[in-house]
Amino acid sequence: MTILPAALLALAATTSPTATAPARDAFILVSGADTVAVEHFTSTTLLLEGELFLRPAGLRSTYRLECDAAGLPLSMHLTTTRRSDPAGAPGQDAAEFRDDSVVVTLTPGGPQRFATHHGALPYLNPSMAMIERAVRRARAMDGDSATAHLFALAGGRTLRATVVRLGADSVRVRLAGVEMRFALGPDGDLRSGYVPAQGLRVVRGDGATPATFAPPDYSAPAGAPCTAEDVRVPCTGGFALAGTMTRPRGVAGRVPCVVTLTGSGLQDRDESLPILRGYRPFRQVADALARAGIATLRLDDRGYGASGGDAAQATTADFAADARAALAWLRARSDVDGARLALVGHSEGGLIAPMVAAGDPALRAIVLLAGPAWPGRRVIEYQNRLAIARQPDWPAARRDSMLRVAMKQVDSLATTNPWLHYFLTCDPLPTARRVRCPVLVLQGATDHQVAPAQATELAQALRDGGDRDVTLSVLAGTDHLFLPDTNGDPAGYAALPETEIRPEILATITDWLRTRLR
After folding, report:
1. Chain centre distance of CA 193
2. Domain extent listing, the chain
3. Which one of 57, 74, 340, 474 has the fewest CB atoms closer than 10 angstroms to its CB?
């Protein structure tokens, strides 16, 4: 599920140094009443040091950016740890900036050289201290608008950001179609900010702001129809996935069980979205299934939350291997009926589920929520077309040009990003034709991320392969998140008034699965 946080993280990585006095300070990123990130930093002209803690991912990044007297980056060192990492086992990266190239050294791994724009600034998600430096650099240029080049350490590509003066005390930063607005202090420092499309606020705190968070609460709430157990599922490669196993309360013996599969981009076990407070679709699914006497296993993606494993090199095929490990783990449990297992996959999870089902004749059923039918490159082109269409004043020639540029960037990124390289050429239909278990295909009619037409193509491929139990339903007024939404534009997700899946959709999933898992 490629969703808005990726765009926010792209915005939050502009860097340029101008501060002249050491200052211990902090930025806090807030969605509604929830703190998403806290960043502590110390800034001088030659040095930016900081620690960035991302709550949803359980990631802590410590960075050190060294610059020359002109403010151009020389080197950057980054250490990243996760909740699930054993003590003393952080990932360490380094980047050296050499005129129009960057040499990135990964540990574990090795050096890689990337072409970039001279003076391009490092990009780390989502550092507001780095945006502040970029804004200061842009304000020092002539004119009311300036462009900064950003080198994305994750992916190795160069992006362009535009900083526009709105007055003496405010600016607008625009990158990849996403806009951020900032109020400035007298010396050009960022005092506060807002990302309108995502409902995110940037608050300047003080250096004493704590950067610790309690882990997410996955326990069963009071009165819930299920019990909740924290579990760890061993996977090939020597790591384990952290998850929550819910069982219907008061039901003895071996019960059927569903494994949920998240969409693209690293997700927690509930598939929650920081920009949508209360959006926890897989928690809702687990609750509904428990009422029908069905257990659910929800897992943090590898390398995310409390799960181990390296996500940086993982592809969709690797995530499918993780799903198979989850099924094997369930079949070894004495309280689960291994002959009555099913998968519920959303977005990329709807790509993974058929990959698993095609090679597992014992799997009883799969549910595909906005599962793609097109190769990844066509999916991304569809998404870019819709994003470009949001600019009504652009002539057709400019739109065509922007689409070519966007897809060229996608292809360039794919040369260094294993997941994207695999996704671009992965064709779901041949796999779908090998699936024989019952399949429920659900699709939102206003989906801007997976074109609704794909649901029909996917269902037809399943039937063409010989599957005799395929159910298709396209839901009116429903977007990619399966929320009520007559528009479906991801830019409007943060403003949606409802953040829970409608009861009738949950009932459709539950009733269909209850019948197949008897």
Report:
1. 22
2. 5-206, 226-374+427-516, 376-426
3. 74
pLDDT band (50, 70, 90) for residue 299: very high
d(CA 513, CA 517): 6
CB atoms within 10 A of CB 338: 16
Whether 130 contacts 10, CB under 8 Å: no
Burial 406-425 (b: 16+ CB within 10 A, else e): bbebbebbbeebebbbbbbe
Give helix 418-425 / helix 376-389 axis angle, nearest 10°.
100
In the block, tokens 């900036």 appear at 97
The single-letter code of the amino acid at 114 is F
With contact defined as beta carbons under 8 Å apart, do 482 and 501 qualify? yes
Q: Are 301 and 307 in contact (CB under 8 A)?
A: yes
Q: Tokens standing for 250? A: 């008061």
In contact, 99 and 116? CB cutoff 8 Å: no
Q: What is the DSSP code (8-state) at residue 214?
A: P
What pLDDT sits at residue 238? 92
What six digits make up the tokens of 125? 């998600």
Q: Rounded to an integer, what distance in angstroms lies between the CA atom of residue 233 and that of residue 211? A: 29
Written as one letter, the residue type at 1 is M
pLDDT, the chain, mean: 86
Q: Are 195 and 7 spatial neighbours (Cβ–Cβ below 8 Å)?
A: no
* Average pLDDT, integer, range 211-239: 87
Residue with the bigger pLDDT between 163 and 138: it is 163
How many CA atoms does the CB half-sphere of 518 hold within 13 Å? 4
Task: Tell me if the bond preceding 490 is cis, omega within 30° of 0.
Answer: no
Q: Whole-angstrom Cα distance, residue 54 to residue 305?
A: 10
Beta strands in 44-168 (DSSP E): 47-54, 59-67, 73-82, 91-98, 101-107, 111-115, 121-123, 145-152, 157-167
State the amino acid at position 105 in one-letter form: T
Length of the chain in terms of residues written: 518
Residues of the chain above pLDDT 70, percent: 90
Q: How far is 291 from 341, CA to CA, in rounded Å?
A: 17
Is 207's pLDDT higher than 80?
no
The whole-angstrom separation of Cα 222 and Cα 226 is 10
Q: 């269902």: which residue's tokens?
A: 459
Averaged over 175-192, what is the pLDDT? 84
User: Residues 44-102: pLDDT tens digits?
Assistant: 888 989 899 887 777 788 899 998 888 889 998 888 877 655 544 556 778 898 888 88
397: confidence class by pLDDT, cuts 50, 70, 90: confident
* CATH entry 3.40.50.1820 includes domain 226-374+427-516: yes
pLDDT band at residue 109, thresholds of 50, 70 and 90? low
